[in-house]
Amino acid sequence: MPKRETEDCQVKALRCEKCGTLDPGPRELCPKCHSPEMTDISVPGVGTLLSWTTIRRPPTAFREDGPYHIVVVDLDVKLRVTARLDAPSPGVSPGARVRCVGTKNNVPIFQETDA
Amino acid sequence: MTRRVNVIGIGSTRFGPQPDKGIVQLAIEAAEAAIRESGIERERIGALYFGNFISGPLTGQEVLAGIVADNLGLPNIPCTKVEGACASGGIAFRHAKLAVESGQCDAALVVGAEKMTQAPSATITAALNCAMDNRSDGDSGLTFPGFFGMAWRLYEQRYTLTRAQVSSVVRKNKANGLLNPLAQMGRLLSDEEIEQSPFICDPMRLFDCCPTSDGAAALVLAADELVTTAGAVPVRILASAQTRGAARIAGHPDLCSFDATVSAANLAFKEARIDRSHIDIVELHDCFSIAEILDSEDLGLVPRGQGAHWAKEGRTAVGGDLPINPSGGLLAKGHPVGATGVGQIYETVLQLRGDHSNQVKDAAFGLTHNLGGTGVACTVNIFGRHDA
């Protein structure tokens, strides 16, 4: 089981102070208005699974973790993030609802949810 | 009015493990063959563009452009290495074409090379991950096969893709590889063998992935004035487009499509002033079986959702209405990353000369497509037979 550093279901992101654009970060300039005023925020870690896979041949840095599941999630706040997926049921498919249950090395970990 | 540019000489090593040869040796072998075939004096070559991705991490050797030019005995000319991950070779080609077209020089040499197989596979996977935006995607542990595995799962749901349809891409390209003397792993495969190979990144299995390779390919490009009857039959460059796509996976509006390919194809067809229906042969970036399906649709050559059907029906085989990767593609010919884009052009030139060992009958127009990173860089080139 991945180590749970937080239990608050929040995902870290950036918000532009000028135009309000959200971005998963890290980024120096707002992708929309190019303002450098990007502020760290937390957003609700609830969303829809876009796709996922199981990495069975990890690169050197992640050898200890393998095999593990990677997921792309469209958060309800309209933010797309690349993250880990914890214990997916075999039939889980694009469109499934997921929620953030913690992080590992600052990468969010998602699980399927009914929410 | 810009000048017309031709490919007047080609050279290539075979692709695949070559434990006895270093990257410089491979590059020289390909480049020397291309120069000799072109029939021009090496003093006429006014620029060298070298496509390479990860020679630093994998071989400990950089400044390849200058080293190779020195060994070839080229004059004191600008020698430039370009890097755009798996599109490095295609980008090198485009810059050489621009140098000749703009009159900076009358002839230019393009070389692409990579040396990979001496490294352990986890090291290679880690080196290939240099092509990701590692600040945003690297920490998750995602790999390139993983990225395409996710694209496959989404495409599968959207278009009711079957395993057998994807396997037909693998079977076609591996069979084509048997007819290419430069190919790393041509083979006649059954659906069962493919379906029983181990998962790499579900639903992707081993035979859905291209092999890592050693290899080099080279081209001599020249303006019309330098085309002589002494050299090889010239092939015309009708277009070369290069584009950028999202650097981050989360930045792609659709995981089943690469914006960079879509826009490069549109630019290339505009420049070439020919219709998509004129293309007789395609060498595209099938780093994974699913990638061939996505690419053929992004290029606008196959309708959305039909890529796998076309492969299953044999329409993309040699003899079909749109032959794709008669060389075996990356899946069978191999993928020495920096060499791949140049190797695709080598194959296409042979087709348009009518000299390919897996010849597409009467091929007059060819297209190459080279994609880098998670779709962050792309080149699409269009070529025409000298009399077309």
Structure overview:
The complex is a heterodimer of chains A (115) and B (388). Chain A starts with 9 loop residues before the first strand and ends with a strand. In chain A, a hairpin with a 2-residue loop joins strand 7 and strand 8. Chain A has no helices and eight strands. In chain A, the strands form two sheets. A five-stranded mixed β-barrel of chain A has the order 4-5-6-8-7. Chain A has a three-stranded antiparallel sheet with strand order 2-1-3, with no helix packed on it. By secondary structure, chain A is mainly beta. By secondary structure, chain B is of the alpha/beta class. In chain B, strands 3-2-4-7-1-8-11-10-9 form a nine-stranded mixed sheet, sandwiched between helices. In chain B, strands 5-6 form a two-stranded antiparallel sheet. Chain B starts with a strand and ends with a strand. The mean pLDDT of chain B is 96. The interface between A and B is medium-sized, with 32 and 34 residues.
Broad shape of chain A: globular
Helix % of chain A is: under 10%
Proportion of residues in extended strands of chain B = 15-25%
The span between the termini of chain B is 21 Å
Span from first to last CA of chain A? Answer: 22 Å
Q: Which structural traits does this protein have?
A:
heterodimer, A: mainly beta, five-stranded mixed beta barrel, three-stranded antiparallel beta sheet, B: 388 residues, alpha/beta, nine-stranded mixed beta sheet, 37% helix
